[in-house]
Design goal:
The complex is a heterodimer of chains A (406) and B (388). Chain A is built from nine helices and ten strands. With 406 residues, chain A is an alpha+beta fold. In chain A, the strands form two sheets. In chain A, strands 5, 6, 7, 8, 9 and 10 form a six-stranded antiparallel sheet that branches. Chain B has two domains: 115 residues, Immunoglobulin-like, CATH 2.60.40.420; 250 residues, Up-down Bundle (A middle domain of Talin 1), CATH 1.20.1420.20. The chains are: A alpha+beta (406), B alpha+beta (388). At the A-B interface, α5 and α8 of A face β1, α8 and α11 of B.
């Protein structure tokens, strides 16, 4: 934790002070904010999440651009382990509130990534009216997701004009990022909802081990990994020319967010054999029921004593690319527990995040199949839902989403 | 709950004796245990680590080293009677089978590919003085439970048909007050056998879907479609159905209930299905009734609640004599907890049925939810208890 600590006095022991990137305590603990694609998508999934959706409250396009510019600068700084503002949490005038809230003092960048997305409401209001002169550039798949069976959406946990996904290996660093960005946004945007995730439920790199979701099963075994560059290009990034009106989105992606509550207490009363049949994998190693080890390809035709050994309503069968025109998703979900519900059950589940090149082919049909046939659905209730277009990466001197506004 | 595969159950006899299947666990000193037997099943061999064990609780660690799905059986002296079995062991996977085996001669059999008589071997259980107690009356208890349960389901189905006929007649005639009164009573018979009805995957969505269960554009039919039409107060901009539309939904419901009734007549059950059905009905209560989500328009959730509990209790009471032998403590706990829950429901009974869900206080809902949890947790042990 050897911060250089020269320029800014006692500021932030353990946090990088100044632009010297080599002053970071752990080089692996920081990811480049700028690049061809936004960070926080193929970046190895960090352990913690704070995700926020915002409503835009201004009518002014200039104010919106000014906010995106200010957010870009603050995010660039925070992902390097610096304070949100240039002054710092304890360095400024005693007469002013500090321009950084301070709870990240002493913490490293902790692998923080900040990823921005644009919701349908940024382009048109509820009546279809152009809000900021952007309507003719609205991506064709960017609209409110259709109702799916088992959706019991809480509007206070759904939708949004903008979103910010902050992921880090330290929960306080993720919260710090959202808190400071929300603060910068007052007057231009307002937080609509936000969600904490305490444990990743996916791997986005072959270097990571597969974590478990709150059903106790390994989750994300078959996820797209960043090393599968061909699949990432095909299934995650929006290709240039894919959407004539929205070429600004090329190199970006779509972010599907779903707050999936689990009926935890009822699930826990299911026998081990039934749980494994619902999922289609063993709970222990995560091997498919057709045998082998975790990464053995499932054999969906293998007979069992009653029908297929991987049952016809097993989760891994229904969502497998083989039965969905080859579509794969890059999932980046997190376990959440928001305390307990009024009846004493855990208000818990999986905050599902998926990045796909086109939700019309890579999410909606799969979600419909799952909602209608998946054995797991009996233990799930979707309480939040949102869709965002994620602009491409931010070049030096640019602000996020600049290609949309220029 | 796993939807009971009733049709399949007619074809495959579930062994009633002692089939407690577990995933194999890494055990340190298990090798030392004379009652632990490792079984390795390959495509053409069935290697059993011991051919003789002392009587008592015997554990078979079954590993599949073959390329096909395998099964492992412990068969009686006649080579026919299945004492215990473990199915669906995928290649390179392991399962554990725990069985209370009295002294005697047996056969072991691996069945790679799940075909034929299996690869058999002689197996001897010697007298150890730790004989498991097995009552000769067990099969009689099972037979009684099965017969009674089949009769119960048929009786409820008959009453469901009668009440639904009356209900749709009133609804079609526009006698809405009478239809509203009869609605929860008719549904009582559905809810008592809900897990059986749900096992028909085609009928359940046509009959019992809630509006939120549908995809955009999907046609909504069944009980809850009519419910919304009879209790439209909460619906925004709701347009009452025309007499012609009413007739359509009424006749459609009647048709599906009649189909259900016909299918129920031919059903046979197994004891584990009855136990699972009992557990499943309580899950229905926990997921939809105690939260007031089932009867969103009419708020008659407590009628459904009581009916689910009725069905669960009948299922439990049917297998109770078996459980009293295998796990008397569990039988006692379940009896008490069913009674506790019933006490709370009785407190909500009125002259015309039950308190409407939206008239319950948060404390009353909380008490009901607590009682459901208190019952559901031990109830999740019931299936294993009837099979052991």
């Amino acid at each position: 934790m050897a911060a250089a600590g020269l320029a800014a006095g006692a500021f932030a022991a353990g946090r990088a002070t100044g632009a010297e990137t080599d002053a970071r305590p752990d080089a692996r603990a920081a990811y480049d904010f700028r690049g061809e694609h936004q960070a926080g998508i193929t970046t190895p999934a960090q352990d913690r999440l704070h995700f926020a959706a915002f409503d835009v409250t201004t009518d002014s396009r200039d104010e919106l651009v000014a906010l995106l510019t200010a957010w870009t600068e603050a995010a660039d700084r925070m992902t390097r382990g610096l304070s949100a503002g240039e002054v710092g949490p304890t360095q400024g005038s005693v007469n002013l509130p500090p321009d950084d809230t301070g709870e990240a003092i002493g913490l490293s960048a902790s692998g923080l990534t900040i990823t921005f997305g644009f919701g349908p409401g940024l382009f048109r209001d509820e009546d279809g009216k152009d809000r900021f002169g952007l309507a003719d550039r609205q991506p064709k798949a960017l609209r409110t997701l259709p109702h799916f069976p088992a959706d019991v959406l809480d509007p206070e946990k759904s939708y949004g004009d903008l979103c910010v996904q902050a992921c880090a290996d330290d929960p306080q660093v993720a919260v710090h990022a959202i808190r400071n960005l929300a603060r910068i946004g007052f007057g231009t945007v307002a937080v609509r909802w936000s969600q904490l995730g305490f444990g990743r439920t996916s791997t986005t790199s072959t270097s990571q081990s597969t974590p478990r979701n709150l059903f106790g099963f390994k989750d994300g075994t078959a996820n797209i990994k960043s090393e599968e560059t061909k699949d990432v290009d095909e299934h995650v990034w929006v290709a240039s020319g894919a959407d004539a009106k929205a070429d600004w989105l090329a190199g970006g992606s779509y972010l599907v967010a779903r707050r999936i509550n689990m009926h935890i207490e009822i699930w826990d009363r299911q026998s081990l054999g039934d749980q494994e049949d619902f999922v289609g994998r063993t709970k222990d190693s995560g091997a498919p029921l057709s045998g082998g080890t975790e990464f053995t390809e499932p054999d969906f035709t293998m007979p069992g004593s009653l029908g297929h050994i991987i049952p016809d309503d097993a989760h891994i069968r229904l969502v497998h690319p083989d039965f969905n025109n080859g579509a794969r998703m890059l999932r980046r979900g997190y376990n959440f527990v928001d305390g307990s519900n009024p009846l004493g059950g855990l208000d818990a589940g999986l905050f599902f995040i998926a990045y796909v090149c086109d939700p019309d082919t890579h999410f909606i049909p799969i979600q419909n199949t799952m909602a209608k046939q998946d054995a797991l659905m009996e233990y799930l209730k979707v309480t939040g839902s949102a869709l965002f277009a994620v602009p491409p990466g931010i070049g030096p001197g640019e602000y996020v989403g600049q290609s949309l506004f220029t | 709950m796993r939807k009971p595969l009733l049709v399949a159950a007619l074809l495959v006899a579930t062994p009633f004796f002692a089939a407690c299947t577990e995933n194999a666990k890494d055990g340190g000193d298990k090798a030392a245990d004379a009652r632990t037997v490792s079984v390795t099943s390959t495509d053409d061999e069935c290697k059993v680590s011991a051919a003789e064990v002392p009587s008592g609780t015997v554990t078979f660690d079954v590993t599949n080293d073959g390329s096909q799905v395998t099964e492992f059986y412990l068969l009686g002296e006649d080579g026919l009677r299945i004492v215990a079995e473990v199915e669906n062991v995928g290649p390179q996977l392991s399962r554990q089978l725990v069985v209370d085996a009295p002294a005697g001669s047996y056969f072991t059999a691996c069945k790679p590919g799940m075909k034929g008589d299996g690869i058999r071997g002689d197996f001897m259980v010697t007298k150890s003085g730790e004989e498991p107690t097995v009552s000769a009356d067990d099969q009689a208890l099972v037979d009684t439970a099965l017969t009674n349960y089949a009769a119960y389901v048929q009786d409820q189905s008959d009453q469901l048909v009668t009440k639904t006929e009356e209900f749709v007649k009133l609804y079609k005639a526009g006698d809405d007050d009478a239809a509203r009164t009869l609605y929860p009573e008719a549904r009582t018979h559905w809810e008592r056998i809900e897990t059986v009805a749900e096992s028909f995957g085609d009928l359940d969505p046509l009959t019992d879907a809630r509006e939120a269960d549908l995809e955009p554009g999907e046609k909504w039919t069944g009980w809850h479609r009519i419910e919304k039409d009879l209790w439209p107060e909460l619906a925004e901009n709701y347009k009452q159905l025309t007499p012609k539309q009413r007739a359509f939904y009424a006749d459609d419901l009647m048709k599906n209930i009649t189909t259900l009734d016909q299918r129920v007549q031919g059903l046979d059950y197994t004891v584990d299905q009855i136990a699972n059905g009992s557990r499943g009905l309580l899950e229905e209560v926990a997921a939809g009734k105690v939260t007031g989500e089932e009867e969103f328009w009419s708020h008659t959730d407590l009628w459904d609640f009581q009916a689910n509990v009725d069905g669960a209790r009948v299922g439990f009471e049917g297998v109770k004599p078996i459980v009293e032998q295998s796990d008397p403590e569990l039988a006692k706990t379940l009896t008490t907890r069913f009674a506790d829950l019933q006490t709370l429901l009785d407190a909500q009974k009125t002259d015309t049925g039950f308190t409407f869900y939206d008239d319950l206080t948060p404390d009353e809902v909380q008490d009901l939810a607590n009682a459901v949890n208190a019952l559901s947790e031990p109830l999740s042990q019931l299936t294993a208890a009837v099979l052991s």
